[in-house]
């Protein structure tokens, strides 16, 4: 048997806060590598990875874009991710399938809110990371201050492997600290950083063994690949300065993608897009095995066999049929009928965990004119929800209302453009309202004996207890299989999260532990769907006994304003029920960090920009749900019949199940 030569491959994501220069960096990487012959531009709408019309018009990335190229004999799959917080779901999905990451920081703005959030996700997943300090030629560029910030807010294990040559308009590039003529003090700092983290290297350093720089560089590569140290480089992506050095650093410090092409298939669908001629495009990262054109593969998540019609590499508007997808690689797979984001293909064992970043905090009602076809509008939003499940499109049949969940106002603007461009539909959106949650106020029990009208028999008793903040739902069963058959227990466990979608006030119930402490079925009269009917009644009975407390979303904010506006900002924060740390003066600017309820601060960025005459920045990210003050109330209209009205609920559900 002929042994196939293994291709060296690196899968790397480009991440940053908005406007730090991700797409520009990607464009220059593709140009320097020879993948494209002419440079595109974000400002002129010609960047390869901004393929949507709305991206070209707005000059921002909305979708994660995949590009492939070769550098020094290594195949690279590069994903350029959106920087705006409203498109965090795209970042989240990309993080899951990347082996390595480049985090870009602006040499002027430094570490910003989203940089910090992405960094925490990268560390949670153990993804090796390089840092590029971009925009070194800008007025106000301060690499020393950015390094201090990075070590304070991100990690003390960040180490520069270059020495910047001048700054601001005089910046001409950066010197490699591993080269013979490098700055002695800067190199000493690099070697000491390595020596401090390894006893053998420390002994070598103390003995004066620093001549073999190649050995020290290999040691840094080992620590980088293990996610224990993070090399930092400098550049000006818009001018191509430092891009070649960045590419070299990626090949020198990043580990290669693993996986065995001969093993059974194991992969994940991390993105769904539409192609006008080819239909649904499933972006697949394969961890084990090989998929070829016309193969049949198992969709493990949906438990169905699906047929592959074609496998392509897609970049911008261009596609190339590659015929096969091997372990370690990423490509677009066509023909996977009914496939959804997050579906596992083949075996699940090789799939890594995911980091949850994106939480939609606003709900919006969609309106359209009388001349528009309801079915077309609903179908369009359902198609968009296939591509971004967090939209959670809900059509309320009885009320004839369509509701979606969004991250923020920019996302609504983009949705408006996409609906017109792609579907020819004109819609308007209602005023966004905050998504609250509920949590049990105390411990209690929920019970139901669903015995009428015959034939049915399902008895359930749940213990419901409040859980720690951020714990979500924890479920377990203490019932023996002799009392309640495993198939009925499985049906009950499956229905518990559904039953918690609407609590006493109509909001999702979270941060609780539910234990099934009693369960019975009847040998003759029980049908598995009896537990689909009984579970929501028992859960709601329990919540009626525990009561629920209201939770509201809280933002972590960083506000930078001229010093003279600092007093007003702090007063505003107090008025909005916010809390903040002592402000920090940086030149003539004041930096204020704190926490704010989303409900009181929805319009504040606009207000702040207005009274500071545009000389302020307001950055925020979701920090979690916290209890509302007693005087804050928020109710949501319940969809469907309340399970607390058991007689009416049983009739409605049985009718629906029969239908």
From TrEMBL:
The keyword GTP-binding applies. It comes from the Bacteria. Transmembrane segments: none annotated. Keywords: Antibiotic resistance, GTP-binding, Nucleotide-binding, Protein biosynthesis. The keyword Flavoprotein does not apply. CDD domains: Tet_C. Residues 7-258 form the Tr-type G domain. InterPro entries: EF-G-like_DII, EFG_II, EFG_III/V, EFG_V-like, G_TR_CS, P-loop_NTPase, Ribosomal_Su5_D2-typ_SF, Ribsml_uS5_D2-typ_fold_subgr. PROSITE patterns: G_TR_1 (PS00301), G_TR_2 (PS51722). Coiled coil: none annotated. PANTHER family: RIBOSOME-RELEASING FACTOR 2, MITOCHONDRIAL, TRANSLATION ELONGATION FACTOR G-RELATED. Abolishes the inhibitory effect of tetracyclin on protein synthesis by a non-covalent modification of the ribosomes. This is GTP-binding protein. It comes from Paenibacillus phytohabitans. The lineage of its organism: Bacteria, Bacillati, Bacillota, Bacilli, Bacillales.
């Amino acid at each position: 048997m002929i042994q196939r030569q293994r291709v060296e491959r690196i899968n790397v994501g480009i991440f940053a806060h908005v406007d730090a220069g991700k797409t520009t960096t990607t464009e220059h990487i593709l140009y320097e590598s020879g993948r494209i012959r002419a440079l595109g531009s974000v400002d002129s709408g010609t960047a390869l990875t901004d393929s949507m019309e709305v991206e070209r018009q707005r000059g921002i990335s909305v979708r994660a874009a995949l590009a492939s190229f070769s550098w020094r004999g290594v195949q690279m799959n590069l994903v350029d991710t959106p920087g705006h917080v409203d498109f965090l779901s795209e970042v989240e999905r990309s993080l899951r399938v990347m082996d390595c990451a480049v985090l870009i920081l602006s040499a002027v703005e430094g570490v910003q809110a989203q940089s910090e959030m992405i960094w925490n996700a990268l560390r949670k997943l153990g993804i090796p990371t390089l840092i590029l300090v971009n925009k070194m030629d800008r007025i106000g560029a301060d690499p020393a201050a950015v390094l201090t910030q990075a070590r304070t807010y991100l990690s003390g294990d960040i180490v520069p492997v270059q020495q910047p040559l001048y700054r601001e308009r005089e910046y001409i590039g950066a010197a490699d600290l591993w080269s013979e003529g490098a700055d002695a003090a800067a190199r000493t700092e690099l070697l000491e950083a390595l020596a401090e983290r390894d006893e053998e290297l420390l002994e070598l350093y103390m003995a004066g063994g620093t001549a073999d720089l190649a050995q020290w560089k290999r040691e840094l590569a080992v620590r980088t690949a293990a996610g224990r140290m993070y090399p930092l480089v400098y550049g000006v992506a818009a001018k191509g300065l430092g891009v070649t050095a960045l590419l070299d650093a990626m090949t020198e410090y990043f580990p290669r993608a693993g996986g065995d092409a001969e093993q059974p298939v194991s992969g994940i669908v991390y993105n769904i897009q539409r192609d006008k001629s080819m239909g649904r495009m499933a972006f697949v990262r394969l961890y084990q095995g090989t998929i070829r054109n016309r193969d049949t593969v198992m969709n493990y998540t949906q438990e169905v066999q699906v047929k592959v019609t074609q496998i392509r590499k897609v970049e911008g508007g261009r596609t190339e049929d590659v015929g096969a997808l091997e372990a370690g690689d990423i490509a677009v797979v066509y023909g996977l009928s009914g496939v959804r984001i997050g579906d596992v293909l083949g075996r699940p064992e090789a799939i890594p965990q995911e980091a949850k970043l994106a939480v939609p905090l606003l709900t919006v009602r969609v309106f359209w004119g009388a001349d528009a076809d309801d079915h077309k509008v609903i179908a369009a939003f359902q198609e968009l929800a296939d591509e971004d499940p967090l939209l959670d499109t809900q059509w309320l049949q009885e009320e004839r209302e369509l509701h979606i969940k969004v991250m923020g106002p920019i996302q609504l603007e983009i949705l408006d453009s996409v609906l017109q461009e792609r579907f020819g539909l004109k819609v308007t959106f209602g005023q966004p309202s905050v998504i609250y949650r509920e949590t049990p106020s105390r411990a209690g029990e929920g019970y139901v004996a669903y015995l009428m009208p015959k034939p049915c028999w399902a008895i359930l008793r749940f213990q419901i207890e409040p859980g720690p903040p951020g714990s979500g739902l924890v479920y377990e069963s203490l019932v023996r299989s002799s009392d309640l058959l495993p198939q009925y227990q499985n049906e009950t466990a499956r229905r518990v999260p559904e039953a918690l979608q609407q609590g006493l006030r109509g909001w999702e119930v979270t941060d609780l532990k539910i234990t099934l402490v009693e369960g019975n079925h009847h040998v003759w009269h029980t049908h598995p769907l009896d537990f689909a009917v009984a579970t929501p009644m028992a859960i709601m009975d329990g919540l009626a006994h525990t009561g629920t407390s209201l939770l509201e979303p809280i933002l972590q904010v960083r506000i930078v304003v001229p010093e003279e506006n600092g007093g007003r900002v702090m007063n505003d924060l107090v008025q909005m029920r916010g809390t903040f740390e002592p402000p920090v003066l940086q030149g003539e600017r004041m930096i204020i960090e704190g926490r704010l309820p989303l409900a009181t601060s929805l319009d504040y960025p606009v207000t702040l920009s207005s009274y500071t005459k545009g000389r302020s920045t307001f950055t925020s990210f979701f920090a979690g749900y916290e209890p509302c003050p007693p005087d804050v109330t928020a109710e949501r209209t319940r969809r469907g019949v309340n399970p607390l009205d058991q007689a009416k609920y049983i009739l409605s559900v049985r009718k629906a199940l029969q239908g």
